[in-house]
Specification:
By secondary structure, the chain is of the alpha/beta class. It has six helices and five strands.
Length: about 190
């Protein structure tokens, strides 16, 4: 029997207790035996990141889930700092930097705006995918497979049934990884 994959959820939400979506996603993921939910804001409230610890968590993972609310079309500030200091040249990328090669990178994000706001004629004037190239390229530069993101739009206005369906899909994908990947890795 094949062992369960090791899944690491890097959670970055500065006010998780007020979250309607990310809090429920994290709570559900914590119930799974092969999933480690690592809350950056809880672990590093002073932003003093233990680089070696973070790298050891990443090295042990098969699937790295980056979970966060979208803030100003990007990631929360602590997650940006985490990328900057943990994904070191010579470790995550560049000459000799192959520690993450072959792992999967799955973005799980939430937005305040609805999917209708992420269109050319919407408030944000771009499709949501236009805001993802930095994360996608980070994954690729580190030799990771970029998986199709799991995004929940309109988190502030969503009804409980919609949030529950989103959480259920998330849990199902965590439980069945890597079986849901297509031949091209997405």
């Amino acid at each position: 029997m094949t062992p369960s994959p090791n899944i690491l959820v890097i959670l970055a939400h500065a006010s998780l207790q007020r979250s309607r979506v990310n809090r429920r996603l994290a709570k559900a993921a914590k119930l799974l035996t092969n999933v480690n939910v690592h809350d950056l804001y809880e672990t590093y409230p002073d932003f003093d990141i233990d680089i070696k610890h973070e790298q050891s968590l990443l090295e042990a993972a098969d699937l790295v889930v980056i979970q966060h609310p979208v803030q100003w079309y990007s990631v929360p500030s602590l997650l940006k700092e985490w990328f900057d200091v943990v994904l070191e040249h010579g470790w995550a990328y560049g000459e000799g930097g192959n520690a993450l090669t072959g792992k999967s990178y799955w973005l799980v994000a939430s937005t305040g705006g609805t999917d209708e706001t992420y269109r050319i004629d919407g408030v944000h004037q771009h499709p949501f995918s236009s805001f993802l190239p930095a994360q996608e390229q980070t994954a690729r530069l580190c030799g990771m497979a970029w998986l199709t993101p799991h995004v929940f739009h309109g988190a502030n206005q969503a009804d409980d049934a919609s949030v529950s369906r989103h959480v259920s899909t998330f849990v199902n994908k965590l439980e069945t990884y890597p079986n849901w990947l297509s031949k091209d890795g997405t």
